[in-house]
Amino acid sequence: MEYWLAWFHEGNDQVKQVAAAAEKMGYAGIAVSDHVAIPRDYTSVHPSGQRHIHAHTRFPDPMITIATMAAVTEQLRFMTYVYVLTMREPFSAAKQAATLAMQTDHRFVFGVGAGWCEDEITVLGHNPRNRGKRMDAMLEVMRDFWDDGMAEADNDFYQFPPTGQFPVPGKVPVWIGGKSRAALRRAAHADGWMGMNYPMAEIRELLDQLNAERAIVEAERGAEPFGRFVMPQTEPDPGIYHQLEDWGIDGTIAMAWTVDDPAFHSLDAKLEAMERFADRFITPR
C-alpha cells in the first residue's frame, strides 16, 4: 500500500519544506487538490453530501504547487486529486500537464474529474450539463498532442485543423476520479481510478463495478498497468489499510493532520503529524 500525503486547503507557504520532509519520511507522493474560483453562495452538493469548501478556502494552483515541490525532491511523486478538467480548455491543460510530466522526470500522475461544483464550472464560462462528454473530447485532444505533438478535431465541442504542440511527453498517466457509472467506465479506459472519501462498504461496491468495467477493457486490448486509489471515510487504521490492499487498492491518501484545523497551521505541527503517521504506517522506514 502506498501512502500519499494530502495537501488540501493549504496556502503557498511551507510547500518546499513539507515536500522535502515527505520524501525523507518515505511517503510515496503528495496529492494536491484543485479549485479555481468558488462562488460564495454556490448550491451544488458534494458527492459526500457535506459542504467541504467555501469561497475563502485556500486552493493554490496545483500545477505550480507540484512544480515547486518537485524542484526540491528526487523520488517523490505527485498527483492532482483531482484536477477539474471541465473548468478549462484542452490546449492549455495539455501543455501544462505535459510540461509538468517532463520537468518532474515523469513523477506526475494527472488525476482528473468532471467536477461536482456546477456553479464554479458556470462561473468559468463552461456548460456544466455536458461536462462528462466534453471531458471525453478534451482527453482525446490532449492524448493526441501527447502522443506525437499533432492533433485535430471535428466534434460537438472542438473543431480545429491539424495543430502542433511541442515538446512531446510521450505519455502522461491519466487517472479518473468519481463514483458515477460514467466515471467508472471512463476510468476503466484510462490508467487508473481515484476514489474520494467513501465509506468502506461503498468502496467495495465501487470496486466491483470498476473491476467489471476494467475486465471488458482488458478483454479488448489485453492487460495493462492500472492504478486503484481511494481515500476511506474513516480514521487511519492498519486493519482498514490491509483490507483495502486485499481488495486490490494500490494507494491511499495519508491524512496526517486534520484539514482546516488551526492546530496544524504551523510547519512544526505538520512535520510532527507527518512523522507520527509515517512511524505508524509507512514501512520499511
UniProtKB/TrEMBL annotation:
SUPFAM superfamilies: Bacterial luciferase-like. GO terms for molecular function: oxidoreductase activity, acting on paired donors, with incorporation or reduction of molecular oxygen. Gene3D superfamilies: Luciferase-like domain. Pfam families: Bac_luciferase. Residues 13-216 form the Luciferase-like domain. PANTHER family: ALKANESULFONATE MONOOXYGENASE-RELATED (PTHR30011), CONSERVED PROTEIN (PTHR30011:SF32). This is TIGR03619 family F420-dependent LLM class oxidoreductase. It comes from Haliea salexigens. The lineage of its organism: Bacteria, Pseudomonadati, Pseudomonadota, Gammaproteobacteria, Cellvibrionales.
